[in-house]
Amino acid sequence: MWVVAHRGASGHAPENTMAAFRRAADMGARFIETDLHLTRDARVVAIHDSTLDRTTTGHGLVHLRSLEEVRALDAGAWFGSRSAESFAGERVPTLEEILQFAKERDVIFYLEIKSDSAWGVEHAVVAALRDSGEAARVIILSFDPATIESVHRLDSTMMTGYLCEDPSNDLVERSVRAGARQIVPRGDLVTPALVEKAHRAGLQVVAWTINEPGQMQQLIAAGVDGIMSDYPDRLVSALRKT
Fold first, then answer.
1. What does pTM read for this prediction?
2. Which residue is catalytic, options 6, 12, 37, 63?
3. Which domains does the chain have, with CATH numbers?
4. 3-state SS of 159-195?
């Protein structure tokens, strides 16, 4: 089963930074999830929020700042109160850095295109993946079916996953209609019946974001293909006990 580090090992290091990605790989995660936004000059960067305020020393909307401006910010100092280790000086990674890291450490990245990102982000992501030749190392995620459909129109070979957070009886059908190869539901939406239905439809199932060992064991027993966690080390430990 796939160990997917949510925003990197974000329980141990500042989310969506190279430090978090390195920590995840060191802990045994072969898959890493991160979030993508577009800068003013159409460069793709890894940050969860549409604004810079929560996780960097900057302020305002990401898409109103140039890559140079975003890269000048500290994206790690905020984590200091949660760790004895200092992460000051970490920068917001670029997609190019992420893809290079994926190649060097032989990991797969889940790239979530945020629904509140600037227009055209999926075009920039697909273009960067084509240019890098590393498209096989990524799975593109979105809560928005239209974004998944847009990615498929741009490049039908891209692996995609449909993120789900609201209860519904047609999650599998919606995923199939969007052209997704994976269904990525919130953990409490997952049941053995949903997993079986998804597998019959040819979909892989990855649950998010699970940090408690007991819930990890329940999802493993339900037959999911992967689990996202802020603490990939806990998931590795849970898998060893099965």
1. 0.96
2. 6
3. 2-49+95-240 (3.20.20.190)
4. CEEEEECCCCCCHHHHHHHHCCCEEEEEHHHCCHHHH
